[in-house]
Design brief:
Order of helices and strands: HEEEEEEEEEEEEEEHEH
Radius of gyration: 21 Å
Strand content: 35-45%
CATH class of the largest domain: Mainly Beta
Shape: globular
Mean pLDDT: 90
Oligomer: single chain
Structural class: mainly beta
Distance between the termini: 73 Å
Length: about 270
């Protein structure tokens, strides 16, 4: 092979390797929260192809943002039209399903685990009910969400589901208890299709909900948090004006094998 051709082929090969490395970095799925904000999990952006820069940011108390513990928290924002879709070969498309969101999805697990997060709704928060508002959820791979935390006009609810249907809807907090205030949510879950599965949910260190029985159909579970809107066509613009931006703060987002490992900064 002529030396000139050999140099050209080496150049193409090296360029291709560089492109692979750059692409791997650009589309890396692992997001690690600052230790001040979370621990025990890594996350990916839900429907990353539609994820906007304003959707998720780490903010500081010194800049006037609310913080549960330490100096930082996670700020989520959804604006009208913040819908996304799976990257190929995925087929999910929020934009065609009257949905919009900015969420982070954690790594999958089975069996017993502890999860905690603190949530804060700003004083100027606008409740968009009857649009469905999910702020935290446990999902399972390739199937329905198993436990969603939903905000209605009456409060924050644990929505336990089976086969895409609500089996139980249990109130955890009044809306007035959430505006301008931090609330600590603690979950002990046994993710299994067997009878020894369970959920236990504490709010501000008080047990508010528990269930015993199968919690999945056998698939791996994963935790998602942020803001997720469904049925956005329920917003009546003629009566209520333009669809508002919605902002929610999270802090102390932790996963672990014991209660102590996820609540150590909450003063319990």
């Amino acid at each position: 092979m002529p030396e000139t051709m050999s140099k050209i082929l080496r150049s193409i090969r090296n360029s291709f390797l560089i492109l692979i490395l750059l692409t791997t970095n650009i589309f890396s799925k692992d997001i690690r929260l600052p230790k001040d904000v979370g621990s025990g999990n890594t996350y990916s952006k839900s429907l990353g192809s539609g994820f906007k820069k304003h959707g998720y940011t780490i903010v500081n108390e010194k800049d006037g943002h609310p913080v549960r513990s330490g100096e930082k928290s996670a700020r989520f924002e959804v604006r009208y039209g913040d819908c996304g879709k799976d990257k190929p070969p995925g087929t999910w498309n929020d934009c065609e399903g009257l949905r919009q969101r900015h969420e982070l999805s954690g790594k999958r697990f089975k069996g017993s685990a502890w999860y905690a997060y603190s949530i804060y709704l700003p004083k100027d928060f606008v409740n968009i009910f009857p649009v469905k508002q999910a702020m935290g959820q446990f999902h399972q791979k390739g199937s329905w969400p198993t436990l969603m935390f939903q905000l209605t006009d009456e409060g924050y609810f644990a929505d336990r589901q089976w086969q895409y249907q609500t089996d139980e809807f249990r109130k955890l907090l009044d809306v007035k208890e959430m505006i301008g205030k931090w609330n600590d949510i603690l979950i002990h879950i046994n993710s299994t299709s067997k009878k020894d599965g369970f959920y236990k949910v504490w709010v501000n260190n008080e047990l508010k909900y528990e269930f015993s029985g199968p919690t999945t159909k056998g698939n791996e579970s994963y935790f998602k948090f942020g803001i997720y809107h469904t049925w956005i066509n329920r917003w009546d613009e003629k009566k209520r004006g333009p669809f508002p931006n919605q902002i929610v703060y999270y802090d102390e987002i932790r996963a672990g094998k014991s209660k102590e490992s996820v609540t150590k900064n909450l003063g319990y």
